[in-house]
Design goal:
Layout lengths: L5 H21 L3 H23 L6 H17 L1 H4 L2
Length: 82
């Protein structure tokens, strides 16, 4: 019998979420897909910035989160040129 660990449970949850996301995208118009993608990117950016400011993390980890946020900004300049 397989043992379900926290890691395998998280992988399973992620797979289910991705499957639902892909199904929803197939039913979207191109404009709806673009809007959803932009919202997801902005949501990730906010999460990364929040983690970058989390004082409970080590400076190295905060820097990694800040770098991840900057990478999103760089890759999606059109979303962050407000």
């Amino acid at each position: 019998m397989d043992t379900i660990t926290e890691g395998t449970a998280a992988e399973s949850d992620t797979e289910r979420l991705l499957s639902r996301w892909e199904e929803a995208r197939r039913n979207m118009t191109p404009e709806e897909q673009r809007t959803a993608d932009e919202a997801a990117i902005r949501g990730l950016y906010e999460k990364y910035m929040k983690r970058a400011g989390d004082k409970s993390l080590s400076p190295e980890h905060r820097e990694k989160w800040a770098n991840a946020a900057r990478d999103l900004e760089y890759k999606h300049l059109d979303l962050f040129n407000d």
